[in-house]
Design a protein that fits this description.
There is one protein chain. By secondary structure, the protein is an alpha+beta fold. Helix content is 59%, strand content 7%. The strands form 4 sheets. Strands 1, 2, 3, 4 and 5 form a 5-stranded antiparallel beta sheet that branches. β11 and β12 form a beta hairpin. The longest helix has 19 residues. 38% of the residues are buried.
Amino acid sequence: KSSNVIWDMVNEGIFISVESEVKNELTTFVYTTHTTDGATVKKLDNPTKVADTANVTVVHGGRYWGQTNTGKIISDTLRTHQHMLLQGFRRHGMEVQGLTQALDLNNFTVAFELAKAVDSEDAWKTLGKKALRVLNIEMAIRVYTMLGNAAMVMTLKRLADVADLELLKGHVCMLFHEFEKAQRHFTSSKKRPITALEMRRDLLQWDQALKLAQQLAPDQIPSICREYAQQLEFKGEYGMALRMYNQALSKTMEGGFGEDNFTGGLDGGNESVSHKRVCKAGIARMTLRTGSLQQGLAMVRQSKDKELVKSCGSILEAMRQYGEAAELYRLAEQYEKAAYMYLKTKSFTKLEALMEHITAPKLLTHYAKSMEAQKKYTEAASAYERANDVDNVIRVCLKHLDQPQRAFELVRKNNSPQGAGMVATFCMSNGDYEMAIEFLLMANLDKQAFDRARNHNKMDIYAKTLGDKGTEEQYLRLARYYESEEKFAAAGRNYARCHMHAKAMRLFLRCGEEEIESAIKIVKAARTSPERPMLVRMLHAYLLGEKDGKPKEPKFVYLLYMAIGDHQKASKTAVIIATQEQKIGGYRTAHDLLFETLNELRNNKIAVPNELMRTLTLLHSYIIVRKLVERKKHKDAARMLIRVCKNISKFPAHTVPILTSCVIECARGGLKKSAYEHAVKLMQPEYRPKILQKVRKSIEKMVRRPPTKEEEEEVSPCPFCHFKVPNSLLTCPQCKNDIPFCLITGRHMVPGDFSLCPSCNTTALHSEMSQLAEAGQPCYMCKKVIKKDALKKLSYEEVKAILLKSRTSDDEKKEGKAE
């Protein structure tokens, strides 16, 4: 019993009780107006002792004042406040006790400062929970911000604007998972009691939700029944789920919940329609689940909902009702699943109707096997092929359909070892050993293939099939066989594949000139082999005829020098060969040989000999005459023929035709004096009888009337020294340099009009090359089509670099005059 109660003059809600029986003891109480439990009074432990004769009259900020019987004034701190009120160094080590006292006394300002001093997660959590209990949302936000709990802070900020006290209490109780208490507060709310129902729905506590809905929101009963049914269906309680689906649908009908007042919680523009659709689908599923198959199937077919049909098909499949499941899968256009069901029930007639929709290999294979079992081999082969089961297609073709060619094509196309083995067995049983060897190799049965080839004299078939895909062991065995049969060329090729270069070289040389090029390839292939010097000496001696006294054709020596990379000797040999070809009229052969050599020298960054370049230039000048005539450029054609006629001794096989062409083109191009000079030359006794009868009279007439003058040839600047040089002259009289020539016209190049063929990098006048590209004609040098977008005019620096490479050396200038 209290004899007296004194309120703290500063801290609201704090009062002390003076015990009537024990006058020297003060007990502290805390009164809280608003908490989650309503208004509360809490008695704090640890009462404060005072003198027996003291009479306490005032409490202020945790301190009390009183007066003894003698009139003495006494004052001290209440024991429930002593740790909280300590300051500075006196607080050291007592922060936790002070925090506890501050929380007991609802002094959140001091509690926050003490929590910062303690700085532990437990301290902050304790403070946060206390703030929530007394509905101090602002302080709770500060505390959970310090904890870094963003989710809680966002939740509390939404609660900060809640004015309804009961609603706020309910939300806070939910944070503490005190749902019964939260429901009481929510239902006591005057503004929004329906929050209690929303809470139960969110917690999936459907029984409680239904009870609340009957009181608070009858319009939500159908949607709650539907959601409850969905949960029961998920848990496998199908009977109860069926009842709830039916209730959800019936409540909608009975309650008159139309489109305007229905609260279904479904996505979509028309929630009532969606609700009914979901309920009917659920009823259909649960009807099937509970064993009423015919009733459930009728509902499913009536719905015309593909997703429902598909899901009910899955239900029936799980119930091993495969026939009904197949029908539903077919209606849902799930053809592969339907086909699996038909396979299980062996409903092949129905299955055949679906095969055009089937792509799954496993299913196609199952179908093919069933067709094969019924001796429907054509359908079986087709299904195996669609399943990409090539081996079984091959087997059916060979064993049942008598279609060996189809089997052969499949093996070659798919490279199937197992299929190749079956085909090889088939071929051997029919005596077709050539085909058998091919397929034995494809089946990786090398020993059997080799034995069949040897026994039936089909080794060439074996070698052809092996190609470049064999192993060194296979090639060595093949080489030894051919050597024993004295087929030295074939043996040499196979020894070469085994990197037995010396052996291959000897065998090639035993074949004579027919295999010299193969021997040269051996030298090229043995580039990194220590045997290479010996191989070169062996082949070189053979080509020079050191053993048999019969030197071989120079072209082989040329090929050898090219193979070993001796480009200087190769270029000299190329000129010799070209000169020989030129004498017998093989101008294109000589031209191509020199051009190939020129490219090799350029690719290896080796200086091009002057003799090779001049010989190629002369041959090219003759070859382009026909092209110039076709383009009606008779004057350029005449200049090229004049250039050739100055070296007519190098064209002994066609001296008269060349001179005749020169006379004709000079006449067409208006070069009458040059035409006369070459006509006079044709009238010499050794040439005159060889002139064609149809032009002889014209030439004789031309000789009888010599012209007195001729138009001077046009001149253009030398790209080296800019001296004016006649267009067809390729050596500058001023600087003595050989000027690069245009591959199209044969004229010398001029500054500012330089270009290169994109394919062979030969110089050409850009203006002429552009015309050639526009006409779609190939390059006169390399015979490749010129792409216009790849063509460009060279810059001054690019031209300078080309001229620097082609500049004639002093030694070359002393060798003699250019043309």
